[in-house]
Amino acid sequence: MPDTPPTTQPGPAIETSGLTKVFGGTHAVRDLDLRVEAGEIFGFLGPNGAGKTTTIRLLLDLQHPTAGTARLLGLDAHGDCLVIHRHVGYLPGELSLIGRMRVRDQLDWVARARNLPDTRHARDLAERFDLDLNRRIEELSKGNRQKVGILLAFMHEPELLILDEPTSGLDPLMKDRFEQLLRETAASGRTVFLSSHELDEVQRVADRVGLIKEGRLVRADVVENLRAKAPRTVEISFQDPVDPSVFAIDGVHKVTATGALVTLEVSGPIGPLLQVAAQLHPIDLVTHEASLDQLFLEFYRDSGSDDHAS
């Protein structure tokens, strides 16, 4: 088909139906139904081996699915892959660069391959990320190599960014700058698919988050809803030590007592806990908002994985 700009195509930026990949009897991805809306930052979370990278390879037609379908920017991931690739920026988890090249030459080489008139946007990003374009890639640290990967993914200002562990090796300052870049990208109407196991990073920038476990999408929701469903931490101080067994009530999942301080993991209404605590005359109570880390651990706690694909 002709290279019609995908912006003319209706629907979500990414949509999969029953997407499945089997390697030698092992399911790397199982019946994945995923929908990423245009203009959002979607965080795709899971530990190493959960199927994140395999999912990305299927989306980009770098591997063919055993079953199911995928569409990107309204186009078929397999049949229209050449068109799709012109409008996608991809940062792989294992970045391969030409070591003997200077950074500037690498950018020029990719610009010619993409028929870009210039590398102006990439140079602007290099300045933003404090990257020396005259250095040879083989001389760069891991963090600076990662910056090159970011420039290559963003340099043609694609409509869809697919990023696999994009902040690997970056220091905190550069991570902050990268997160701001993601927010600007989404604000311009473009879409970011962010695959990571860095939960703190994802919850700061993502509009929605999908959790993948053993190749299955176990939950997808807005960050606020996911965090609300995760257990909160409640710390209650008493005048004297108390028997922690009195907190064995509905909604309390874990109780730890250290002297007169009791720490609990609580989900659902906090009223029953307060009723019990009030009878023991507490002197202070502090709650900590749940993080995605806690929710993530709830899904993976006490569960082994038979999925060894990344």
Please tally the β strands and state the result.
Answer: 14
Lateral arrangement of strands in the main beta sheet: 6-7-8-3-9-10
Arithmetic mean of pLDDT = 89
Low-confidence stretches: 302-309
- CATH class (first level) name of the largest domain: Alpha Beta
- The ordered string of helix (H) and strand (E) elements is EEEHEEHEHHHEHEHEEHEEEHEH
Q: How far is the N terminus from the C terminus? A: 33 Å
- Number of discrete helical segments: 10
Q: Biggest sheet, in brief?
A: 6 strands, mixed
Total domains: 2
- Share of helical residues: 25-40%
Overall geometry comes to elongated
Radius of gyration: 23 Å
CATH architecture of the largest domain: 3-Layer(aba) Sandwich
Q: What is the CATH fold-level name of the largest domain?
A: Rossmann fold
Q: What share of residues are in beta strands? A: 25-35%
CATH superfamily of the largest domain: P-loop containing nucleotide triphosphate hydrolases
Structure write-up:
By secondary structure, this protein is an alpha/beta fold. It is 30% helix and 29% strand. The protein contains ten helices and 14 strands. α4 (120-128) packs antiparallel against α5 (142-154). The radius of gyration is 23 Å and the shape is elongated.
Essential attributes:
310 residues; Rossmann fold; disordered C terminus; four-stranded antiparallel sheet; 29% strand; alpha/beta; 10 helices
Secondary-structure blueprint:
Elements lengths: L13 E10 L2 E11 L4 E5 L6 H8 L7 E6 L2 E2 L4 H6 L1 E4 L11 H11 L6 H9 L13 H13 L5 E5 L7 H16 L3 E6 L2 H7 L2 E6 L2 E7 H7 L2 E7 L13 E7 L2 E6 L4 H8 L3 E7 L3 H9 L10
Parallel strand pairs: 3-8, 3-9, 6-7, 7-8
Antiparallel strand pairs: 1-2, 1-4, 4-5, 9-10, 11-13, 11-14, 12-13
Helix pairs in contact: 4-5
